TrEMBL record:
Its EC number is 3.5.4.3. Residues 67-421 form the Amidohydrolase-related domain. This is Guanine deaminase. Keywords: Hydrolase, Metal-binding, Zinc. It comes from the Bacteria. One of its GO terms (molecular function) is guanine deaminase activity.
Length: 424
């Protein structure tokens, strides 16, 4: 008779802050001043409850007064822009020409790409981001290196080869057939890797730099493999004008993506600042999501996304840092910028709404809401241990400090699927 197997569960004691998944009536948050989080086999949450001495048979890691909370989700970030954060070189199209495209051309150098990929993953984890949705460059080898770095870091990552076959520098331009062959190879190697932590995303940069044929082929590959689609839409008026010059067969910007089939599955459209009501309606009908990147929008002067338009139609919204136009990898800054963005439009977001937009709301927008986003039994244990000032007490103070006084709040540890991934 074999000996009984030791209990593989692990328990963490701390204060706890989490969205309430599926809460009726809008975003809601749960705060426990003294909680026990139990992680079971497979890195899933086995139990979350108020702490009771002796309730757990094994050892308990006491982390109080630190707060346990879900890992943050960055729904829109650019890996090859890691080193150009803060490059104030103009509005969107000028910034791309002067800062972004020259930097992204450097990723043809494998040594450089590997170095920045390691920096990229370190920046994410140090900021408390445990899940990212990332653009790579148009270079297949650099994209492969990004996936290797995500795997080594233990991050949950959705990433894609950036597709561009027109209206871009020669160093970044990849013809349709070559780009799609590379994308298919990357799908085979990386989609579902890391035990499912990694996914490949179809990633047209945006409509002006993509031919219709490239977008149609990309949409077909997404449909064949059930891949998430990520791209940009309506970030600036000049971008919208360029889109319709290149694609005069479409009635508006969203119609470009709609007609080529890119809105038929899991689609995440970044920005959505300058959308007409018909475009918002169509986004809602296709169940696409918006990645709201307010810090980037302020930095480039692109405008202000009206969250009320999405809310009125039930369009899922996730927050994105949009590094490198975004000035920080820290999603707490994105939450704070979203608050400011709304105020500029005469609206006001609650701290709970902002917190949910970077956790459960983002997970829902990405189709991962049943897996991550909150600290609920059965979900995978992607969570942070965060140090707050000792005087912070209760849900309201914790949320206010997390979002608006983040300099006083430090990420001490990060876990993905129950495995410690930070500190390094």
């Amino acid at each position: 008779m074999s000996a009984p197997r030791a209990d593989a569960r692990r328990a963490y004691r701390g204060r706890l802050l989490t969205p309430i998944a599926g809460a009726a009536g809008g975003p809601a948050v749960r705060f426990l001043d003294d909680a026990l989080l139990v992680v079971g086999e497979g890195g899933r949450i086995a139990d979350v409850a108020p702490f009771t001495p002796g309730a757990f048979a094994g050892p308990v890691l006491n982390l109080r007064p630190a707060v346990l909370m879900p890992g943050l989700i960055d729904a829109h970030v650019h890996f090859p822009q890691t080193r150009i954060v803060g490059s104030a070189s103009g509005a969107l199209l000028e910034w791309l020409e002067r800062s972004v495209f020259p930097e992204e051309a450097r990723f043809r150098d494998g040594g450089y790409a590997a170095l920045v990929a390691a920096e990229f993953t370190r920046c994410l984890l140090a900021s408390g981001t445990t899940t990212c949705v990332a653009f790579s460059s148009s270079n297949a080898a650099a994209t492969d290196l990004l996936f290797h770095a995500l795997l080594r870091a233990g991050l949950r990552g959705i990433a894609g080869l950036t597709l561009m076959d027109q209206n871009c520098p020669e160093a970044l331009c990849v013809p349709r057939d070559e780009a799609m062959a590379a994308a298919r190879d990357l799908v085979q190697r990386w989609h579902g890797a890391g035990g499912g932590l990694l996914e490949f995303a179809i990633t047209p940069r945006f409509a002006p730099t993509c031919s219709r044929g490239l977008m149609e082929a990309a949409a077909q590959l997404a449909a064949d493999h059930g891949l998430l689609v990520q791209t940009h839409v309506a970030e600036s008026p000049a971008e919208g004008e360029a889109t319709l010059r290149e694609h005069p067969w479409a009635r508006d910007y969203v119609d470009v993506y709609d007609r080529v089939g890119l809105l038929s599955g899991r689609a995440v459209l970044a920005h959505g600042i300058h959308l007409a009501p018909r475009e918002w309606d169509r986004i809602a009908e296709t169940r696409a999501a918006i990645a709201h990147c307010p810090d980037s929008n302020f930095f480039l002067g692109s405008g202000r996304m009206r969250l009320s338009e999405a809310r009125a139609r039930g369009v899922p919204v996730a927050l994105g840092s949009d590094v490198g136009a975004g000035r920080s990898f820290d999603m707490r800054r994105s939450m704070s910028s979203a608050f400011d963005n709304a105020l500029c439009l005469g609206d006001r977001l609650t701290p709970a709404e902002l917190f949910v937009a970077a956790t459960q709301g983002a997970a829902d927008a990405l189709g991962l809401g049943h897996v991550i986003g909150s600290l609920d039994p059965g979900k995978e244990a992607d969570f942070l241990v965060v140090r707050f000032p000792e005087h912070v007490a209760g849900e309201e103070e914790a949320l206010n400090h997390l979002i608006f006084a983040s300099d006083a709040v430090a990420v001490q540890r990060a876990f993905v699927r129950g495995k410690a991934v930070y500190p390094f």
